[in-house]
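Worked example 4.2. Below are the chains of a multi-component assembly; read each line carefully before continuing.
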Amino acid sequence: MIVYFLYLLMRVVVMFVLWYVVVMAGVGVLQMLYALYLAPRHVAREKSFEYQTTGASGNVPPISLIVPAYNKKDDIVESIKLMLNLNYLNYEIVVVNDGSTDGTLDTVINAFSLHKTTYPIREQLATKKIQGVYYNPDIPRLRLVDKENGGKSDTLNAGINFSRFPYFVSIDPDSRLAANALVHIGMAFMHNKYTVSVGGIIRISNDYGIDDGKGGSLSENIWVRFQMLEYFRSFLVARIGWNSINSMLIVNNSFGAFQKSVVIQVGGYSPGVAGQDMDLVIKLHQYMRKKKYKYRVSFLPYPIWWTVVPDNLASLFRQRRRWQSGLLDTFGRHPEMLLKPRYGIPGMLAMPYHFLAEVVTPCIELLGYIAIPLAWNFGFLSLESMVLFFTASLGFGMITSLGALVVEDFTHPKFLTMKDSLRLSFLSIVENLFYRQLTLVFRLASMLLYRKYKQEGLKRRMA
Amino acid sequence: MHNTALAFLLLSLAVALVVLFGVNSLRKLVNNIRERKASAHRAAIKERIEGFIDRPEGEFHEAMVDFTAKALHRDKSYRALVDEYLLGALELPGNAHQSRLIAIAEEMQFPEECMAQIRSRNLEISALGSRRAGLYNVKEAVVEMLLVLDNLSSENQFAVLLALARIGNKEAMDLAFEKIKTSVIINEQAAIGILSSFPNGTDKRKLFKKMIRSDTNYIAELFLKATENEMAASLVDDMKTVLHNGSKGVRAAAVRGLASMGANAPLDDLVQALEDNDWEVRALAAKALGPVGTPKASIALFKALSDQQWWVRQNAAKAMLCHPGYETLFLLAAEIGDEYTRDSILSVLEDGGNPLLLRYIKIMAA
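Applying the procedure described above to all two chains together yields the following structure tokens:
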């Protein structure tokens, strides 16, 4: 009797794993098809924009670029120089040095001949002590704030206190902005006054020049190539879909634009949180829904922001560990939003889906890769069911990746050359046989190591 | 049955993969060929149009008819490139050949295309149609665009209002704002930018005169903020009236409008605005007094240096920096004022004031 009960239980578990993976993979394909449907609309929409006049117009929303810098001596100067040459009239750059120990402060002071000023700061968000403000009247757009080390959230909050304009963009020093980036951002705020946050597509700049990849080529590094595909799938396809129902939960803090007054209302970035970006956006959704205000968290499917991605396994694992811990952190901080009709689609659909896709799926899918062949071997499962599992898990994944490439080509046809596109098409097959499983292992390992990471995180800053 | 379903799934998967791979590669290939052709065509169109655009009227007309007759027989993508060139050229403010570029567009039958696009159920296509109608000055599209305003979409609201402003139809603008006054989606800067695109002239003045007295505060504020230069001078009495009678937002906007007159802004009204109950009005008035470098303005700003609000003090200090002899008043304010007054003065001096004075006040503050 007990043996029969155990047999039944195992069958139920295996069938659950099988159908869970099939359904989630199917949802991925549906997301891709939906993005394919929406892609031409975004192209038409972009054609109705006027970049030349908007970039040169004084009637655009003024934007503060907040650049949190911790030990970024090597990237910071080049990055600021690029930021000083954006196609936009009303913007300022606020670099916030978070008590760097590698000489970042002196590097910036010397590179731009800044001197200490007594510029007053409105303390709307609590932060660590400000040690100085630096400025050069010949470069009026740029100001440098030096503060005690307090972590990324604290640094961004100090930048918000110091910024003068009603909108701000947080940008990492190792990210690069396309020349028209602020025009896109400004237009998103101009077209809809209810927009509280805007995110854009991340493009990978390893070996690529920014703005249409001019002067660059596809990286020879296999990890970078896999991540390119992954970014198309996760950051382009998925977000186009969530954007259409105003349920974006993540606006990356290495490049995200926000309406300052609302961010101050929700208390700014939460200190000591690994996933500040997701946490802030969820706080915005909560606040606006609670108050019953109209609002929009917008996503721009245009390549406006470029970043360098890990090019080896160790740094890739570190990055995934940070992401996964951020996710767990955020879900742990906002459980009240899950499945609450009060929070609309973000609470009823986006949060549960993200929880399933990012936290539950890695465990179940990995369990499936081990349990399903074993179950077939021991006679719990038919051969057809096993084939169905691998078809769904790998085959649907391949379709989603290839489809993401088509969406990418729709929204930005000049980015990839024919040769690069073909290379990535082949890679989208290989990716599902190896890379995707590797990232699942990374995610699972990150979840197992979460407590340790959290303890470490309290002691050291999250760079 | 089970096997058949699985075989069907596998087959569908294989087909989907092949189709996607094929579609992706084919699209890329076609795009590459198209782009190569388009680059050559783009250059040729630019060269051709720039070759006859500034010729005398007769020659221009002849060359234009010849060009458009040939272009109309080309394929859709070629016509799209002509459209792209014309829109790009018309988008540049103050284009000297605006009427001729519009004439080419008319010969190319683009206005008819715009009308069809505006009617499209696809909101993005409709917004694109409105943008083209505005740049090609398609007066016949005004009614269609006003109808589009009923479908609330941010892209459409922006595109339609901008197009109506560019066409410069006062009645249409009036009607459009009447339609959207309780449902404005575009933000303030966008609206101000749109109003600035309205061609200067009597119609614009009449429109602004009516709108700054609108009973909807938001609309009145928008038009006040968009008032600039000569327009501000011709509406000065209306702005003074709302400055004394309007709501808080309207008063602040009126100060902004008066400030756009620069040195000719009415001094007495701005000095009075420095005493307003609302700090935003005071801060804006302080800023507006910068270009008005008279002793009366300097004394009013001197008082504002000890205002309770940071922005008022800061703007007053900044404005005073433009006045002759600001050093004496700064010195006096630093001596009799508190640390907050000194902070504002110091931060302004650091932005480009007298370095000796800066050093002296720093020592005094220490």
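Take a moment to check your reading of the output against the notes. Chain B is about 75% helix and 0% strand. Residues 2-52 of chain B form the longest helix (51 residues).
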